[in-house]
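Box 3.1 A note on notation
Throughout this textbook, protein chains are presented in two layers. The first layer is the amino acid sequence; the second is a C-alpha coordinate string describing backbone geometry. Keep the layers aligned when reading.
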Amino acid sequence: MSEDRNKRDVPVAVVGAGSWGTALALLLHRQGHEVRLWAFGEEVVRDIRARGENSGYLPDVPVPSSLFITSSLEEAIAGASVMVSVSPSQYVSGIMDTAAQYLDPEVQVISASKGIEIRTLRRMDEVYRDVLAADQMEQFTVLSGPSFAVEVAREVPTAVAVASRSADARARAQHLFQTDIFRVYTNDDVVGVELGGALKNVIALAAGVAAGLGFGQNTLAALITRGLAEMSRLGVALGAKRETFSGLAGLGDLVLTCMGELSRNRTVGYRLGRGESLDEILADMRAVAEGVHTTPAVQELALRAGVEMPIATEVQAILEGRDPREAVQNLLQRDPKPEDWA
Protein backbone atom coordinates (compact mmCIF):
# COMPACT_ATOMS: atom_id res chain seq x y z
CA MET A 1 0.00 0.00 0.00
CA SER A 2 1.21 3.49 -0.74
CA GLU A 3 2.48 5.48 2.22
CA ASP A 4 1.19 8.79 0.83
CA ARG A 5 -2.53 7.88 0.75
CA ASN A 6 -5.09 9.81 2.79
CA LYS A 7 -2.68 12.42 4.13
CA ARG A 8 -4.16 13.86 7.32
CA ASP A 9 -1.14 15.09 9.26
CA VAL A 10 -2.49 14.62 12.79
CA PRO A 11 0.27 14.59 15.47
CA VAL A 12 -0.15 11.26 17.26
CA ALA A 13 1.82 9.85 20.20
CA VAL A 14 1.80 6.05 20.43
CA VAL A 15 2.83 5.07 23.96
CA GLY A 16 4.21 1.54 23.97
CA ALA A 17 6.51 -0.03 21.37
CA GLY A 18 5.58 -3.66 21.76
CA SER A 19 4.13 -5.55 18.81
CA TRP A 20 0.68 -3.91 18.97
CA GLY A 21 2.01 -0.40 19.56
CA THR A 22 4.46 -0.73 16.68
CA ALA A 23 1.73 -2.06 14.38
CA LEU A 24 -0.62 0.83 15.18
CA ALA A 25 2.21 3.33 14.76
CA LEU A 26 2.93 1.90 11.31
CA LEU A 27 -0.77 1.99 10.40
CA LEU A 28 -1.04 5.67 11.34
CA HIS A 29 2.31 6.61 9.80
CA ARG A 30 1.28 5.14 6.44
CA GLN A 31 -1.67 7.52 6.41
CA GLY A 32 0.62 10.51 6.70
CA HIS A 33 0.10 11.28 10.37
CA GLU A 34 2.99 12.72 12.37
CA VAL A 35 3.61 9.67 14.57
CA ARG A 36 5.90 9.58 17.60
CA LEU A 37 6.39 6.08 19.01
CA TRP A 38 7.49 5.83 22.64
CA ALA A 39 9.49 2.82 23.84
CA PHE A 40 10.09 2.08 27.51
CA GLY A 41 13.70 1.07 26.97
CA GLU A 42 16.43 2.82 25.01
CA GLU A 43 17.54 -0.58 23.68
CA VAL A 44 14.29 -0.86 21.69
CA VAL A 45 14.90 2.58 20.18
CA ARG A 46 18.45 1.61 19.21
CA ASP A 47 17.26 -1.70 17.76
CA ILE A 48 14.65 -0.10 15.52
CA ARG A 49 17.01 2.62 14.34
CA ALA A 50 19.83 0.18 13.63
CA ARG A 51 17.84 -2.66 12.07
CA GLY A 52 14.86 -0.84 10.58
CA GLU A 53 12.53 -3.20 12.43
CA ASN A 54 11.39 -3.94 15.98
CA SER A 55 13.21 -7.26 16.09
CA GLY A 56 12.26 -8.05 19.69
CA TYR A 57 8.51 -7.63 19.27
CA LEU A 58 7.63 -7.43 15.57
CA PRO A 59 10.46 -9.02 13.56
CA ASP A 60 10.60 -8.95 9.76
CA VAL A 61 8.27 -5.95 9.49
CA PRO A 62 10.08 -2.86 8.15
CA VAL A 63 9.88 0.30 10.24
CA PRO A 64 10.74 3.34 8.08
CA SER A 65 13.30 5.81 9.39
CA SER A 66 10.70 8.56 8.95
CA LEU A 67 8.69 7.12 11.87
CA PHE A 68 9.99 8.97 14.93
CA ILE A 69 10.81 6.78 17.93
CA THR A 70 12.00 7.90 21.35
CA SER A 71 12.36 6.72 24.94
CA SER A 72 11.39 10.19 26.22
CA LEU A 73 7.73 10.52 27.17
CA GLU A 74 7.96 14.30 26.88
CA GLU A 75 9.32 14.08 23.33
CA ALA A 76 6.58 11.65 22.34
CA ILE A 77 3.58 13.32 23.98
CA ALA A 78 4.12 17.08 24.12
CA GLY A 79 1.99 18.79 21.48
CA ALA A 80 0.24 15.62 20.30
CA SER A 81 -3.45 15.94 19.39
CA VAL A 82 -4.03 12.23 20.01
CA MET A 83 -2.32 9.82 22.39
CA VAL A 84 -2.74 6.09 21.73
CA SER A 85 -1.92 4.10 24.86
CA VAL A 86 -0.68 0.60 24.05
CA SER A 87 1.27 -0.31 27.19
CA PRO A 88 0.52 -3.57 29.06
CA SER A 89 -2.44 -2.93 31.36
CA GLN A 90 -0.45 -3.53 34.57
CA TYR A 91 1.90 -0.64 33.68
CA VAL A 92 -0.56 1.94 32.36
CA SER A 93 -1.13 3.67 35.71
CA GLY A 94 2.58 4.16 36.41
CA ILE A 95 3.36 5.38 32.91
CA MET A 96 0.44 7.79 32.89
CA ASP A 97 1.39 9.28 36.24
CA THR A 98 4.46 10.61 34.42
CA ALA A 99 2.91 11.19 31.00
CA ALA A 100 -0.07 13.25 32.21
CA GLN A 101 2.07 16.35 32.78
CA TYR A 102 2.93 16.50 29.07
CA LEU A 103 -0.58 16.03 27.67
CA ASP A 104 -2.23 18.86 25.78
CA PRO A 105 -5.48 19.88 27.56
CA GLU A 106 -7.47 19.05 24.42
CA VAL A 107 -5.77 15.73 23.65
CA GLN A 108 -7.86 12.70 22.77
CA VAL A 109 -6.62 9.61 24.62
CA ILE A 110 -7.30 6.29 22.89
CA SER A 111 -6.61 3.14 24.90
CA ALA A 112 -5.61 0.01 22.99
CA SER A 113 -4.49 -1.92 26.09
CA LYS A 114 -6.49 -5.08 26.81
CA GLY A 115 -6.59 -6.05 30.45
CA ILE A 116 -7.65 -5.31 34.00
CA GLU A 117 -5.35 -3.82 36.61
CA ILE A 118 -4.93 -6.74 38.99
CA ARG A 119 -4.05 -4.67 42.06
CA THR A 120 -7.20 -2.54 41.92
CA LEU A 121 -9.49 -4.53 39.55
CA ARG A 122 -9.93 -1.40 37.45
CA ARG A 123 -10.57 -1.26 33.72
CA MET A 124 -8.37 1.14 31.75
CA ASP A 125 -11.23 3.65 31.60
CA GLU A 126 -11.19 3.71 35.40
CA VAL A 127 -7.39 3.92 35.56
CA TYR A 128 -7.39 7.00 33.33
CA ARG A 129 -9.98 8.78 35.49
CA ASP A 130 -7.23 9.23 38.08
CA VAL A 131 -4.89 11.05 35.70
CA LEU A 132 -6.99 12.85 33.09
CA ALA A 133 -9.00 16.03 33.51
CA ALA A 134 -12.79 15.81 33.18
CA ASP A 135 -12.75 17.34 29.68
CA GLN A 136 -10.12 14.82 28.56
CA MET A 137 -12.14 11.92 29.99
CA GLU A 138 -15.15 13.07 27.98
CA GLN A 139 -13.11 12.27 24.86
CA PHE A 140 -11.58 9.02 26.20
CA THR A 141 -11.86 6.25 23.62
CA VAL A 142 -11.15 2.52 23.54
CA LEU A 143 -9.95 0.49 20.55
CA SER A 144 -10.43 -3.27 20.58
CA GLY A 145 -11.32 -6.21 18.36
CA PRO A 146 -9.79 -9.19 16.52
CA SER A 147 -6.42 -7.85 15.42
CA PHE A 148 -3.13 -9.71 15.59
CA ALA A 149 -0.40 -7.07 15.50
CA VAL A 150 1.73 -8.69 12.81
CA GLU A 151 -1.24 -8.98 10.44
CA VAL A 152 -2.19 -5.33 10.94
CA ALA A 153 1.45 -4.35 10.34
CA ARG A 154 1.47 -6.40 7.13
CA GLU A 155 -1.78 -4.78 6.00
CA VAL A 156 -4.00 -7.84 6.23
CA PRO A 157 -7.68 -6.74 6.10
CA THR A 158 -8.90 -6.23 9.66
CA ALA A 159 -11.99 -4.87 11.44
CA VAL A 160 -12.06 -3.40 14.96
CA ALA A 161 -14.35 -1.35 17.21
CA VAL A 162 -13.79 2.01 18.88
CA ALA A 163 -15.92 2.99 21.86
CA SER A 164 -16.45 6.29 23.64
CA ARG A 165 -19.24 7.98 25.55
CA SER A 166 -18.79 10.92 23.17
CA ALA A 167 -20.19 10.55 19.65
CA ASP A 168 -17.69 13.15 18.43
CA ALA A 169 -14.76 11.24 19.95
CA ARG A 170 -15.95 7.99 18.36
CA ALA A 171 -16.18 9.65 14.96
CA ARG A 172 -12.72 11.20 15.25
CA ALA A 173 -11.13 7.90 16.29
CA GLN A 174 -12.89 6.13 13.43
CA HIS A 175 -11.59 8.71 10.96
CA LEU A 176 -8.09 8.53 12.45
CA PHE A 177 -7.66 4.78 12.01
CA GLN A 178 -9.92 3.91 9.06
CA THR A 179 -8.12 2.82 5.90
CA ASP A 180 -8.99 0.67 2.91
CA ILE A 181 -7.69 -2.40 4.80
CA PHE A 182 -8.40 -1.43 8.43
CA ARG A 183 -12.15 -1.04 8.98
CA VAL A 184 -13.36 0.69 12.14
CA TYR A 185 -16.84 0.40 13.65
CA THR A 186 -18.12 2.70 16.41
CA ASN A 187 -19.73 1.70 19.71
CA ASP A 188 -20.95 3.65 22.74
CA ASP A 189 -20.37 0.81 25.24
CA VAL A 190 -16.95 1.58 26.76
CA VAL A 191 -17.42 -0.94 29.58
CA GLY A 192 -18.36 -3.77 27.23
CA VAL A 193 -15.63 -3.13 24.69
CA GLU A 194 -12.99 -2.97 27.43
CA LEU A 195 -14.24 -6.09 29.18
CA GLY A 196 -14.49 -8.03 25.92
CA GLY A 197 -10.84 -7.31 25.18
CA ALA A 198 -9.78 -8.42 28.65
CA LEU A 199 -12.03 -11.41 29.34
CA LYS A 200 -11.39 -13.20 26.05
CA ASN A 201 -7.77 -13.72 27.10
CA VAL A 202 -8.91 -15.92 30.00
CA ILE A 203 -10.96 -18.13 27.69
CA ALA A 204 -8.04 -18.24 25.23
CA LEU A 205 -5.87 -19.76 27.95
CA ALA A 206 -8.49 -22.50 28.34
CA ALA A 207 -8.60 -23.05 24.58
CA GLY A 208 -4.83 -23.42 24.53
CA VAL A 209 -4.94 -25.93 27.37
CA ALA A 210 -7.50 -27.98 25.44
CA ALA A 211 -5.28 -27.95 22.35
CA GLY A 212 -2.24 -28.89 24.43
CA LEU A 213 -4.13 -31.86 25.85
CA GLY A 214 -4.87 -33.04 22.32
CA PHE A 215 -8.59 -32.32 22.30
CA GLY A 216 -10.36 -31.53 19.04
CA GLN A 217 -12.68 -29.00 17.45
CA ASN A 218 -15.73 -30.11 19.44
CA THR A 219 -13.97 -29.06 22.63
CA LEU A 220 -12.85 -25.75 21.18
CA ALA A 221 -16.36 -24.91 19.95
CA ALA A 222 -17.78 -25.67 23.39
CA LEU A 223 -15.16 -23.53 25.13
CA ILE A 224 -15.74 -20.57 22.83
CA THR A 225 -19.51 -20.74 23.20
CA ARG A 226 -19.63 -21.26 26.95
CA GLY A 227 -16.76 -18.85 27.41
CA LEU A 228 -18.78 -16.20 25.61
CA ALA A 229 -21.66 -16.91 28.00
CA GLU A 230 -19.35 -16.31 30.98
CA MET A 231 -17.98 -13.10 29.47
CA SER A 232 -21.49 -11.80 28.79
CA ARG A 233 -22.76 -12.61 32.28
CA LEU A 234 -19.95 -10.79 34.01
CA GLY A 235 -20.03 -7.92 31.54
CA VAL A 236 -23.74 -7.26 32.07
CA ALA A 237 -23.29 -7.48 35.85
CA LEU A 238 -20.59 -4.79 35.59
CA GLY A 239 -22.67 -2.45 33.44
CA ALA A 240 -21.93 -3.53 29.87
CA LYS A 241 -24.47 -4.13 27.11
CA ARG A 242 -25.06 -7.81 26.33
CA GLU A 243 -25.04 -7.20 22.57
CA THR A 244 -21.49 -5.85 22.71
CA PHE A 245 -20.26 -9.39 23.38
CA SER A 246 -21.75 -10.56 20.08
CA GLY A 247 -19.63 -8.00 18.20
CA LEU A 248 -16.02 -7.48 17.23
CA ALA A 249 -14.78 -6.69 20.73
CA GLY A 250 -16.52 -9.79 22.12
CA LEU A 251 -17.11 -12.80 19.88
CA GLY A 252 -14.77 -11.56 17.16
CA ASP A 253 -11.77 -11.16 19.43
CA LEU A 254 -12.66 -14.33 21.34
CA VAL A 255 -12.65 -16.49 18.20
CA LEU A 256 -9.35 -15.03 16.99
CA THR A 257 -7.59 -15.39 20.34
CA CYS A 258 -8.85 -18.92 20.96
CA MET A 259 -8.11 -20.26 17.47
CA GLY A 260 -5.18 -18.26 16.16
CA GLU A 261 -1.71 -19.73 16.59
CA LEU A 262 -0.33 -16.18 16.87
CA SER A 263 -2.25 -15.75 20.15
CA ARG A 264 0.11 -15.39 23.12
CA ASN A 265 -2.60 -16.44 25.57
CA ARG A 266 -3.48 -19.54 23.57
CA THR A 267 0.23 -20.36 23.41
CA VAL A 268 0.59 -20.14 27.20
CA GLY A 269 -2.44 -22.39 27.63
CA TYR A 270 -1.13 -24.85 25.05
CA ARG A 271 2.17 -25.20 26.84
CA LEU A 272 0.40 -25.63 30.18
CA GLY A 273 -1.66 -28.39 28.60
CA ARG A 274 1.57 -30.02 27.41
CA GLY A 275 2.82 -30.17 30.98
CA GLU A 276 5.13 -27.16 31.26
CA SER A 277 5.05 -25.00 34.37
CA LEU A 278 3.84 -21.42 34.22
CA ASP A 279 7.21 -20.14 35.44
CA GLU A 280 9.00 -21.95 32.61
CA ILE A 281 6.63 -20.56 30.03
CA LEU A 282 6.78 -16.95 31.18
CA ALA A 283 10.56 -17.03 31.46
CA ASP A 284 10.64 -17.96 27.79
CA MET A 285 8.36 -15.13 26.60
CA ARG A 286 9.27 -11.51 25.98
CA ALA A 287 5.79 -10.23 25.13
CA VAL A 288 3.08 -10.10 27.78
CA ALA A 289 0.23 -12.65 27.82
CA GLU A 290 -2.41 -10.45 29.47
CA GLY A 291 -4.64 -13.39 30.43
CA VAL A 292 -2.17 -14.55 33.08
CA HIS A 293 -2.67 -11.27 34.95
CA THR A 294 -6.32 -10.86 34.05
CA THR A 295 -7.54 -14.26 35.28
CA PRO A 296 -7.19 -13.62 39.04
CA ALA A 297 -8.71 -10.16 38.59
CA VAL A 298 -11.68 -11.69 36.75
CA GLN A 299 -12.12 -14.23 39.52
CA GLU A 300 -12.34 -11.47 42.11
CA LEU A 301 -14.70 -9.37 39.99
CA ALA A 302 -16.98 -12.38 39.45
CA LEU A 303 -16.99 -13.12 43.17
CA ARG A 304 -17.93 -9.54 44.02
CA ALA A 305 -20.66 -9.51 41.37
CA GLY A 306 -22.03 -12.92 42.33
CA VAL A 307 -21.44 -14.28 38.81
CA GLU A 308 -20.58 -17.92 38.14
CA MET A 309 -17.63 -18.39 35.77
CA PRO A 310 -16.60 -22.07 35.88
CA ILE A 311 -14.15 -21.92 32.95
CA ALA A 312 -12.34 -18.92 34.41
CA THR A 313 -12.28 -20.66 37.81
CA GLU A 314 -10.54 -23.72 36.38
CA VAL A 315 -8.11 -21.58 34.37
CA GLN A 316 -7.08 -19.86 37.60
CA ALA A 317 -6.62 -23.24 39.28
CA ILE A 318 -4.39 -24.41 36.40
CA LEU A 319 -2.28 -21.25 36.69
CA GLU A 320 -1.88 -22.09 40.37
CA GLY A 321 -0.75 -25.66 39.59
CA ARG A 322 -3.84 -27.83 39.13
CA ASP A 323 -3.44 -30.68 36.64
CA PRO A 324 -5.19 -29.56 33.41
CA ARG A 325 -6.93 -32.93 33.00
CA GLU A 326 -8.42 -32.58 36.47
CA ALA A 327 -9.68 -29.12 35.54
CA VAL A 328 -11.36 -30.52 32.42
CA GLN A 329 -13.07 -33.23 34.46
CA ASN A 330 -14.28 -30.64 36.95
CA LEU A 331 -15.98 -28.76 34.11
CA LEU A 332 -17.49 -31.84 32.46
CA GLN A 333 -18.82 -33.29 35.72
CA ARG A 334 -20.70 -30.19 36.85
CA ASP A 335 -24.42 -30.68 37.46
CA PRO A 336 -26.47 -30.69 34.23
CA LYS A 337 -28.33 -27.44 33.63
CA PRO A 338 -30.17 -25.46 30.91
CA GLU A 339 -28.21 -23.37 28.41
CA ASP A 340 -28.63 -20.10 30.31
CA TRP A 341 -27.16 -16.80 29.08
CA ALA A 342 -28.73 -14.71 31.78
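Residues 1-7 have pLDDT under 50 and may be disordered. The longest strand covers residues 158-164.
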